[in-house]
Amino acid sequence: MNGVFCSRRTAFRRGRCVSGKRRQCRRRRASSLFPECPIRTRRSSASGRRKPGKRPTSSSVRYRGFSRPGIVRRPLSRNRVLSRRIRRILLIDEGSPGHLVQSRGLARALAEHCQAEVEEYPVRLALRGIFRPWLRMACSMARWGLPDWLLRLAYRLPERALPAADLLVTSGGRGLYLAASLARRQRCPLVFCGDPSPLPAVWCDAIVSPLPLAGHPRVIRSELLLTEISPQSIAGRGRELRETFRQSGATTLAALLIGGDSRSHRYTAADWQDLIATVNQRGAQGWRWLISTSRRTPVEIAERLRQEIEPAYLIHAVWWHAQPERVMQGYLDAADIVLVSRDSLSMLSEAIAAGKPAVALAPRRTLPSAFIDPVLATQVEGRRLRQVALADLPATRFAAQDFSPLTVSPLPDYDRQLADLLGLRPRQSEAPLSFGVIVPTYNRPAYLIEAIQSVLAQTYPHWKLLICNDASSVDYSPVAPWLADPRIVMIKAACNGGPNKARNMIIDRAAAEGCDYIIFMDDEDRLDPQALATGVQMLAAHPEADWLISNTAGDRKAGQRDIDAEGSVDWLADYAYGKKLRGDKTHIISLAMLGDIRFDGQLRVETWHFFLPLAARARIWAYPYPSRRIRYLDDGITRTNSRHPRSWREIQSRFARHWLAIRLRPSLLAAWRNGLLELLKTPLRLARLLAISVRRRQANPTRIIRTTSRP
């Protein structure tokens, strides 16, 4: 593509790319050295060219795959999305009981649907409010997540190490900074319950909220805030409370759930006086109360309620500041009617989800809320909720015919909707794993037949052999008899593009064929008969692994070092820049974890742009088994790179790979050293490339025909 390079920092700040007369940018999404460069443009409907425009609003942002801040993404194909299996769901607990109830209900529903396990990770935001705008700015700019030192400065984290996860679920803005950073590091989707504002919604890959969020492609509208409470789940929890109420001989058992001041609600002394008067007045009329304060209730108010409410009217009471106790499910099961302070939308949602008549108590000083008001208005319209001002509470009468309790589940099918949106497939332990063997070939049918025979000799039967003929110029008819096996698929490229483009075509076909894992080999290689069976054993013993690395046999390079013991591997430190592992290895990679990572088709041989982002995303397990026998041929696909780059693209890739490694891990000193050395060699390589170009022109002079115009 013609054009000039656009400064990545300039494009990020300005939100657009304006780089020359044609306004075209070389940073292409699928095959560039930095495929996730955040560049926003808008196109003219007439010419189709990219023109400078304003920074797009949230409604004009396009997405590709899982969201990253400030990145315009294109929609992925359905085959590429529906390939992610979930083993572990990590729930970020920011400390709010209401937020925990929301995220826990959704996480457990997803775990049941995907047959996964849920692990809760409690965190507490320690950074004061005046520093949070800076934290938000840092989180928006950190494309790979906030660094460890900043996370530990901003949060109080548990001593145990952070577990790896396939899906993150959280609710509440205090934990969203950490959750967004972890999602970018581990390359897993992030699901948010509720309204993420004022934080950017693009930090989340999917949102379950009662309100519509314009511009976000994955929003599931919920009628209430998510909760795992339902009439069936709380049945029998309040049996003892109900028995005590029957012995008292009263007529009505009411639950009173008290919150406190918030951004949109302020309680005055008159409000609390009206509440106390109503409790005592209804108690004299035969009502009995289940009262619970919350962490937002001021201590002096809780003490006043405790002293001025008649103890004879109380069946049970929880004063949160003195002795916190989680009795919500028991209260909701035992009560005939539930009164909740209007500031707590989570407690109101739980009361409605329990199928009880719910009353929202509004203070005198109430500000409009773009989140609470629409949700409560919907419930009032459905006669599941009644709003009463505390000033009018003593004179208000409640009747059963005024309410129409909720009868459906509060989590009807959100787990299935999320699974469809994010491509989450249930983990079926009884179904055997399917392997896709990736084989590019060019002009070597005889070697390809040997590779096919090695795959047919596998002791593990569940595999697909996917071959890409890279526009070969020789006859491949000797291979035709082997294609009769339905497990062997051969496609042909329209033009020769090199092994990397061929591998990309086969990876997309493997996703369409429903393969779980892919294994790479070339047409001159042969698989060991136990290669796939050994891989299945390793995956069964280590289900957390997304990427298996094993040894190779046959021809060896100078200085090659094999895997001598089974264990986890740090690909950057041990392989790319380390001395523990060197030379070609056999790779088995999960398609679910691979996502949208592909080879760079412009570089015919180099594969670092594929494995570097993969190493930042995957959990690697290595084992010392020679899974593949390789041969180094002069015309083979498996060969070392040329000593001198033959194009500007290859020159750029020499130092760009080290820059990408630095972005993934800034503390890797070897990447800094090698990147600086490659950068110093760049002028000499450019001069050599220019000299080669001049010699080629002198060897093949081009005739220039001049035409003269006649009058």
What is the average of the pLDDT values? 79
CATH fold-level label of the largest domain: Spore Coat Polysaccharide Biosynthesis Protein SpsA, Chain A
The number of distinct β-strands equals: 29
Task: Note the gap between the termini.
Answer: 39 Å
Largest sheet: 9 strands, mixed
Principal-axes geometry comes out as elongated
Number of DSSP helical runs: 21
Specify the oligomeric state: single chain
CATH architecture designation of the largest domain: Alpha-Beta Complex
CATH class category name of the largest domain: Alpha Beta
Determine the strand fraction and express it as a percent band. 15-25%
CATH superfamily heading of the largest domain:
Spore Coat Polysaccharide Biosynthesis Protein SpsA, Chain A
Radius of gyration: 32 Å
Which residues form runs of ≥5 with pLDDT under 50? 1-83, 638-642, 703-711
Classify the secondary structure makeup into a structural class. alpha/beta
Helical proportion? 25-40%
From the structure above, extract its key features:
711 residues, alpha/beta, Rossmann fold, 5 domains, 9-stranded mixed beta sheet, 21 helices, 33% helix, 18% strand, elongated, disordered C terminus
Describe the fold and architecture:
The chain is an alpha/beta fold. The relative contact order is 0.08. The radius of gyration is 32 Å and the shape is elongated. The strands form seven sheets. Strands 21, 22, 23, 24, 25, 26, 27, 28 and 29 form a nine-stranded mixed beta sheet that branches. A six-stranded parallel beta sheet has the order 5-4-8-9-10-11, sandwiched between helices. A six-stranded parallel beta sheet has the order 15-14-12-16-17-19, sandwiched between helices. It starts with 7 loop residues before the first helix and ends in a 12-residue tail after the last helix. The longest helix has about 30 residues, at about 670-700. It folds into five domains: about 1-55, no CATH class; about 80-220, 3-Layer(aba) Sandwich (Rossmann fold), CATH 3.40.50; about 240-395, Glycogen Phosphorylase B (Rossmann fold); about 430-630, Spore Coat Polysaccharide Biosynthesis Protein SpsA, Chain A; about 640-700.
